[in-house]
UniProtKB/TrEMBL annotation:
Name of this protein: PSP1 C-terminal domain-containing protein
Cellular-component GO terms for this entry: cytoplasm
Organism lineage: Bacteria, Thermotogati, Synergistota, Synergistia, Synergistales
Compositional bias of kind Basic and acidic residues: 326-341
UniProt feature, compositional bias: Low complexity: 313-325
Biased composition annotated in UniProt, kind: Basic residues: 343-360
């Protein structure tokens, strides 16, 4: 049986092939990877076809995402060896390491400040046997950190390895809640990043608002690519906004396309805008180019239903709204308020001349 293992803070993928032992999903295991002894969990079983697809996916050259300017040096996919099921000692050791890492980060950043290097420490991670300590950092350039590594080795007394990561990898390691309210896809279920460009956003008719289309990493959100292939297929059957249709009576302008309802918004030569379903657009174009007028002929039953619904809506809104006061009622209310104000003023004038008796 083949098992998929997820381990490490960057969510590396490991393959345990031809395992005779039955492993339940989400069970913690101790494995040996290229980094050393590590604690991971079983993500599920893999068929031979799935193993082949994973190998083709991760071992073939990938398209480079220029938005990060960083290539990951750590293999995301690798074969690992199963040593044993994790016991209470392994779990307590892993928990102890996470606590030590959190406490040591301020010290590491203080050491980095003394070296004045243009880099930012994101996180650190021990392997299970403490033979290695990994540091993940971001930087806009290549950094010579040899002296920094010596100070870290002197402080932690173990082998130190630094890994430069991109902005998207930083969000993947740290995690958090995305603008949609769910955990970030990269830290929750995604195994790799895909190149995303602003053209994908434009072709989905989304607002180009940076706060709406950017994730915690500051880059375009990964979900911008989820439905892109579908929208790309839809655009093959739709005209581009701004296209002109020349007719004997004038030009028709395509002012917009609504992909959700699969309709085209068109402005006539008279300046009237109307919608044409996508499946009727070819017929519409041929009709107006031949000099004929295009008209929609809804069924009489549909018109009656629309008129009835509008009448009911208008009637209910009128009945539910409170009646407006008449001019006489408004005038009486104003006179009453004026009399009240005058009465209060007279009382104040009477009490103003009185003197309080002094207490003996």
């Amino acid at each position: 049986m083949n098992y998929l293992i997820i381990f490490g803070k960057p969510r590396f993928l490991g393959l345990i092939s031809d395992c005779e032992e039955h492993l339940e999903k989400n069970v913690k295991v101790v494995i040996e990877s290229s980094r050393g002894l590590e604690l991971g969990y079983v993500a599920g079983t893999l068929s031979k076809e799935q193993v082949r697809k994973y190998k083709e996916k991760f071992e073939s050259p990938k398209e480079y995402d220029e938005s990060d300017n960083i290539r990951s040096t750590e293999p995301l996919w690798q074969c690992v060896s199963l040593l044993r099921l994790a016991d209470d000692g392994d779990l307590s050791e892993a928990e102890r390491q996470r606590g030590e890492e959190e406490e040591a980060l301020p010290l590491v950043r203080k050491i980095l400040k003394n070296h004045d290097l243009p880099m930012k420490i994101v996180d650190m991670e021990y392997v299970l046997d403490r033979k290695k300590l990994y540091f993940y950092f971001t930087s806009e350039q290549r950094v010579d950190f040899r002296c920094f590594v010596k100070d870290l080795a002197r402080e932690f007394k173990t082998r130190i390895e630094l890994r430069q990561i991109g902005a998207r990898d930083e969000a993947k390691i740290l995690g958090g809640l995305a603008p949609c309210g769910n955990p970030c896809c990269c830290s929750y279920w995604m195994s790799e990043f895909f190149p995303i460009c602003i053209r994908m956003v434009k072709e989905q008719n989304l607002a180009l608002n940076p706060s709406k289309i950017s994730g915690l990493c500051g880059r375009l959100m990964c979900c911008m690519s989820y439905e892109y292939d579908l929208y790309k297929q839809l655009w093959n059957d739709l005209p581009n906004p701004g296209t002109k249709i020349k007719t004997p009576s004038g030009n028709y302008h395509i002012s917009g396309v609504d992909l959700a309802s699969s309709s085209v918004r068109i402005r006539s030569p008279e300046g009237v805008e109307f919608l044409v379903p996508v499946y009727e657009f070819a017929l519409f174009r041929k009709t107006v180019e031949d000099g004929n007028k295009w008209s929609l002929h809804p069924k009489s039953g549909d018109i009656a239903e629309v008129a009835q619904s509008l009448s009911e809506t208008f009637t209910s809104s009128v009945e539910s709204s409170p009646s407006r006061p008449s001019n006489d009622d408004r005038r009486k209310r104003e006179e009453k308020n004026e009399n009240t104000r005058n009465g209060k003023g007279k009382i104040k004038q009477k009490t103003k001349g009185r003197k309080r008796k002094s207490k003996i």
